[in-house]
Amino acid sequence: MSGSGDRRDSAVRIGVLFPDLLGTYGDGGNAVVLAQRLAWRDIPVDVVTVAAGQAAPDSCDLYLVGGGEDGPQVQATRELAQSRALHRAVDAGAVVLAVCAGMQILGHRFPDAAGTDQAGLGLLDCDTVRVDRPRAVGELLTRDAAVPDPSDPSGAGRCELGVLTGFENHAGRTVPGQECATLAAVEVGEGNGDGTEGVVCGKVVGTYLHGPVLARNPRLADLLLGWVVGADVLAPLDDGEVDELRTERLRAARSHELAPRRSWRDLLRRS
Ligand code: GLN
């Protein structure tokens, strides 16, 4: 890992964990966004895709864990619990972005397809539970997001991220613990289920935002990259086109043009 301001000789290694198990919601696009934002700055990048059954490396700088269905997320957890590769990487300072099922499996526990609690990896201080509420499906918009600056020993420093936008699609709800921060308060949608969205412990970030989240929120992409290469190494990019799309998407979410809709499963369950 390199500290702030260091120049890297080696490529930034991005590990995409089990996209064949956790690739249902297009979160693989987060790797594309990170790789492109590094390439635009002439910073070499190496994207390492790890399929189910393959040994996950513990040497990546940044890991991406995506969203998926209840069954595959149990298998992904089993593999990561056995190898402990992600635990070793996080202990060594690696950055992790875990989306939806990814966030759930990084917590202490989450429900499987039968609703039975499964032990998570314990890298995020949160519990995911089943609730007697409809599946959360639709646009998810936060108020201004911020995370504690992991390089500030006082714990008072904050990294500001502005409004976060994306879509959500999950049955479980996540209860954040005392040892972590949340990303933001929710403006539109469900998020964790208690009015907050996301869970952050050090450089491990969990979120319910699909989109992919880093395509819709380039400030979050650069925050994660800055934690790897040093924020001062990241030359500013022109995100004008993304800003236009964000403006349109924020307006649509707020005017409920894209209001959450119930799934067929929820409608049938209620009938
Ligand atoms: N299977 C989990 C749930 O429904 C996660 C879904 C997802 O990753 N979008 O809660």
In short:
This protein has 271 residues and is of the alpha/beta class. The chain contains 8 helices and 14 strands. The radius of gyration is 18 Å and the shape is globular.
Key descriptive features of the protein:
271 residues, alpha/beta, Rossmann fold, 6-stranded mixed beta sheet, 4-stranded antiparallel beta sheet, 8 helices, 28% strand, disordered N terminus, binds glutamine
Which helices and strands appear, and what pairs or packs with what?
Blueprint (H helix, E strand, L loop, with lengths): L11 E6 L11 H11 L5 E6 L11 E4 L4 H14 L1 H7 L3 E5 L1 H6 L2 E3 L5 E3 L6 E4 L6 E13 L9 E13 L2 E4 L7 E5 L7 E2 L1 E3 L2 E4 L5 H4 L1 H12 L10 H15 L9 H7 L1
Parallel strand pairs: 1-2, 1-3, 3-4, 4-14
Antiparallel strand pairs: 5-6, 7-10, 8-9, 8-11, 11-12, 13-14
Helix pairs in contact: 1-6
Bound molecules: glutamine.
Explain the overall architecture.
It contains 8 helices and 14 strands. By secondary structure, the protein is α/β, with parallel strands linked by helices. The protein has a single domain, classed as 3-Layer(aba) Sandwich (Rossmann fold). A 6-stranded mixed beta sheet has the order 2-1-3-4-14-13, sandwiched between helices. A 4-stranded antiparallel beta sheet has the order 9-8-11-12. Helix 1 packs across helix 6. It starts with 11 loop residues before the first strand and ends with a helix. The site of glutamine has 13 residues, from helix 2, helix 4 and strand 9.
